[in-house]
Structure formats: structure tokens, C-alpha cells
């Protein structure tokens, strides 16, 4: 059974619907770093997103996820652009165009503040790419989007995620952590100058 036959809701749109989908993604700001391009998410990015959430890499987020839950997570963050003016970016390697991961400045159900979230593929881990993208998203979200605040919620056992937050310049906010019933590390991001932002055309 082909992927499209198994998951028809993941199949690309066609005709006027496809044109409208491309038009809707146009206003999403494109961000660039030394090694990455952060662009509007597309439907054909979902398999890469699902591969991360359905793997052991998602264990610190309550995963591995089912494909259905990965779909719901992906679509809610994509919808954030239309509903809240903030959402998810797909991060591509500038050198190859391969998907490196996904970065967001959004709010999901239960969040107290806008969250800077990040998911990286296993192949791209350990190269400093997460900190590079986090810094670009942080600066644009706080300046370009004028978000009132921005934090990253990190499971205490996720040491890689915590290190990426620290390398990008974020600092622990123990006061914010105290508001949660379950243990969570809260890393607060502050503005450090916009770089690599391309205005939507």
C-alpha cells in the first residue's frame, strides 16, 4: 500500500486548492542563519515531522507519538500562523536542502507563554544547529512579531535540549518553573538583535 493510499489526508492538494495553499504559506517569514533556512511548513514536510515524534527522540515530550497525534501536533502549529500570527518553521540545511528539523514560536493548549520549541533530526544533532536556529527564532519572535515573552519548556531529563537552550543564550527561570505541578525546566529567551530575517513577499 502506498503512503498516499494509506494516508489520503497527507496527499498534496491539487488545482486551485494547491494554489491557495501556496498563497497561504507566503506571509510566513523566512529566516536564514549561517547553515540553515527556516521557511513556511508544507504538507510534504509532515513525514519528516512524524518521523521525529514517532521515534524515541520524542520520549521527553510524552512520546513516541502515534501518527495521528503527530499529525494533530503538526497541524496545530501550522494553524498558529493564521490564528495567532506565530507558528512553526521547517528548517532546511542550506548546503543540501534536506530537512534538519522544526522550530516554533507558538502556543499550544496549556502553555502559559509563547513557547520556542525545537525538534531536530537525529542526523543533525550535535552540530550546534539547534542553538543557531533558536537564536534566529528568538530574535525574530521578540522583535519582528513583538511577542510579550518567550520561553522553552524542557523535560528535566532532556539534557541535550537544555544545553541547546543555554548555548543560544537562554537562562533558567525558576520562578516560572514553580507554577507547574510537574517538574519542568523553563528557559527564558531575551532579545539579542535580529539577524537573517527576510521580509515576506
Overall description:
It is a single chain. The protein is built from seven helices and nine strands, in the order ααββααβββαβαβαββ. A six-stranded antiparallel β-sheet has the order 5-4-3-2-1-9, with helices on both faces. A three-stranded antiparallel β-sheet has the order 6-8-7. The protein starts with a helix and ends with a strand. The protein has 201 residues and is α+β, with helices and mostly antiparallel strands.
Report Rg: 16 Å
Residue-averaged pLDDT: 90
Task: Give the strand content.
Answer: 15-25%
The shape, in one word, is: globular
Specify the biggest β-sheet: 6 strands, antiparallel
Count the beta strands.
Answer: 9
How many distinct helices? 7
SSE ordering: HHEEHHEEEHEHEHEE
pLDDT below 50 for ≥5 consecutive residues: which ranges? 193-201
User: Based on helices, strands and strand pairing, what is the structural class?
Assistant: alpha+beta
Amino acid at each position: 500500500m502506498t503512503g498516499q493510499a494509506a494516508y489520503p489526508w497527507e496527499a498534496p492538494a491539487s488545482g486551485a486548492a494547491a494554489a491557495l495553499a501556496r498563497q497561504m504559506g507566503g506571509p510566513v517569514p523566512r529566516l536564514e542563519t549561517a547553515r540553515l533556512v527556516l521557511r513556511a511548513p508544507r504538507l510534504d514536510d509532515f513525514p519528516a515531522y512524524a518521523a521525529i515524534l514517532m521515534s524515541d527522540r520524542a520520549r521527553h515530550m510524552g512520546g513516541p507519538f502515534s501518527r495521528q497525534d503527530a499529525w494533530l501536533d503538526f497541524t496545530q502549529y501550522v494553524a498558529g500562523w493564521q490564528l495567532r500570527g506565530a507558528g512553526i518553521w521547517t528548517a532546511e540545511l542550506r548546503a543540501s536542502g534536506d530537512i534538519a528539523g522544526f522550530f516554533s514560536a507558538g502556543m499550544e493548549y496549556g502553555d502559559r507563554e509563547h513557547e520556542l520549541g525545537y525538534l531536530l533530526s537525529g542526523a543533525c544533532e550535535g552540530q550546534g544547529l539547534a542553538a543557531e536556529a533558536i537564536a534566529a527564532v528568538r530574535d525574530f519572535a521578540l522583535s519582528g512579531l513583538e511577542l510579550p515573552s518567550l520561553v522553552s519548556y524542557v523535560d528535566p531529563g532532556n539534557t541535550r535540549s537544555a544545553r541547546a537552550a543555554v548555548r543560544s543564550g537562554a537562562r533558567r527561570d525558576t520562578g516560572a518553573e514553580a507554577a507547574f505541578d510537574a517538574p519542568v525546566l523553563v528557559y527564558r529567551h531575551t532579545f539579542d538583535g535580529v539577524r537573517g530575517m527576510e521580509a515576506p513577499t
